[in-house]
Design goal:
36% helix; 135 residues; alpha+beta; four-stranded antiparallel beta sheet
Length: 135
């Protein structure tokens, strides 16, 4: 009776295939998890930036522009702070007088911060605003 070659895989070949498959699946799951974390972080940065832009747009529109620091909370997650101060150009001569000129320049800085697990994250936007002075 002739000897027929057997078809199939040996136990060692199966074990090697399972190890390669498990490493590939583990790498894919890790990559997928990291992508989800990055997406959530990008969403938080987007929301924080939108809140900060909204605050910048609001400064000086409804209440008049005044020097000070204001703070609050958005959506129970984001803490915000708006700091307004008179802007002084460091390159301008100190003794310039502008009689009858009733406009002042203000530096506005908005910070939005939030907790991302054990880390604290924050964004900061700055602008300059003009405000009319009451004579």
């Amino acid at each position: 009776m002739p000897i027929r070659p057997e078809h199939g895989f040996t136990l060692l070949e199966l074990l090697v295939a399972f190890v390669i498959l498990s490493v590939a699946v583990g790498t894919l799951l890790h990559t997928f998890g990291q992508s989800l974390r990055n997406t959530a972080l990008a969403e938080d940065y987007t929301l924080a930036t939108l809140h900060a832009q909204s605050l910048l747009a609001h400064v000086g529109v409804e209440p008049p522009l005044s020097v000070g620091v204001y703070q609050g909370v958005f959506d129970e997650q984001f803490e915000w702070q708006v700091a307004i101060e008179r802007y002084v150009d460091p390159e301008a001569p100190v003794d310039i007088e502008t009689p009858g000129f009733a406009v002042n320049l203000y530096h506005v800085e908005v910070r939005v911060s939030w907790a991302d697990g054990p880390q604290n994250r924050q964004i900061e936007l700055q602008t300059l605003r003009l405000a009319w002075e009451e004579p």
